[in-house]
Amino acid sequence: MGALAVPAAELCVARSRDHSGGLVVRVGVPLADVYLEFLGGRCRPNTVLAAAYDLKVFFTVVAKPPDQVRPADVLACITAQRTGRGGEHGVLQPVNPGGESAGVSGATVRRRLSVVSGFFAFLQARGDVPANPVPRGLPTRRERSRPRQGVPLVRVPRRLPRILSPAEVDALTAALRTHRDRAMVAAMVLGGLRRCEVLGLRLEDLRAAERRVFIAEGKAGRQRLIPVSGRFFAAVAAYLDGERPPGIGSDRVFVVLKGPRRGQPLSVRGTDEILAAARRRAGLGHGSCHELRHTCLTRLRAAGMALEAVQAQAGHASIEAGPDLPAPGR
C-alpha cells in the first residue's frame, strides 16, 4: 500500500468486461480499484465510470498512495483544481480555455471531493486507513456553540436550472432532422425523462394505449410508470414505421440509423452531438438534455401540478432531491 501501482502521470481509466458481461473499471491504484469493484455492485455503470475519472484526477494531482494522503494534500488538490495549477501532469479541463483561469468549476471540485471522501470512508470502514483525510469543513468562531457548522470547503452558488421557452422548444424541434430525434427530445421536454432513461427505453417499455412509459431502471435503480404527451408517441410511431432499421437484434427503442453502427443502441455522445447540431441550426445558446427535462418539470409545476406529483414524474427520491420549482401560476 506504500506506492501507486503505476506512476501518477500514467494513471488511466481502463474498462473491460467480466465473465458475465458486467463492466469492470480500473484506474491503477489498487485500493481505488477495490472501491470501484464495490461500487459496481451497487451503482449504475455510468456512476462507476464517473467515480473512476474523479479518482484518477485526484491521485494524478496528489501523486501519493491512499495511506499517505493527508488533509493538507486534499486542500492542496482543491486549490489546484480551482486555479488550474495541477502540477506537471496536466489533468484539468479548463472552465474557459480562452481565458486566464484554467481551473474547473466549483461544482466539479465539489463532486470530485465527494467521490474522494466516499472512497476514504470506504477504506476507513475496511481498516485500511485510520481516518478520512477529507475535512468536513473549515472551523469558525461559532464552532463551540454550533458543532459541525463550519465553512464548506467548496462554495458553489445554487442556481435555478435554465429552461426553454415554448418558442425555443418549437425552434429546437423544427431543427431536428429525424422522427427519432424529435421523439427523444419530446420524451425529455414533455415527459421529464433523463437522458440515460431515454436511451435505456426498450420497445416493451412503451405503453402507447395508456400514453405511459415504463422506466425500468431510473436513478438509483428506481422504477416508475409515467404519463407522456401523445406528441411523443406520435413521433415514436413515425420513427418505428419509417426510420428504425428492420430486423436488428437490439430491443432498445433509439438506435443508430446509418453508418457502421447502424442498428446499435444510440450512445450518450451521439445524443449530445445530435442536440448540439440542432441547437446550432436553431440559433439557440442553450438547451441541454438536463434543461429539456427541467423545462418539463417547471411547466408542470407552473400549471398547478402538486409538488409530490412532480417528484413522482421526475423520479426524485424526495422533494428535497429536486431543484427549486416555481409555485403554481408563476
Summarize the model shown.
The chain has 330 residues and is mainly alpha-helical. The protein has helices at 30-40, 45-62, 71-83, 106-126, 166-175, 179-191, 195-199, 230-242, 268-282, 289-302, 307-314, and strands at residues 14-17, 23-26, 206-207, 212-215, 224-227. The strands form two sheets. It has a three-stranded antiparallel beta sheet, with no helix packed on it. Strands 1-2 form a two-stranded antiparallel ribbon.
How does this model look, in words?
It is a single chain. It contains eleven helices and five strands; from the N terminus they run ββαααααααβββαααα. The longest helix is centred in the middle third of the chain and has 21 residues. α1 packs antiparallel against α2, α2 crosses α4 and α5 packs across α9. The N and C termini lie far apart (57 Å). The protein folds into two domains: 106 residues, no CATH class; 156 residues, Orthogonal Bundle (hpI Integrase, Chain A). 43% of the residues lie in helices and 5% in strands. About 5% of the residues have low confidence.
Summarize the helices and strands and which ones pair or pack.
Blueprint: E1 14-17, E2 23-26, H1 30-40, H2 45-62, H3 71-83, H4 106-126, H5 166-175, H6 179-191, H7 195-199, E3 206-207, E4 212-215, E5 224-227, H8 230-242, H9 268-282, H10 289-302, H11 307-314
Antiparallel strand pairs: 1-2, 3-4, 4-5
Helix pairs in contact: 1-2, 2-4, 5-9, 6-8, 6-10, 10-11
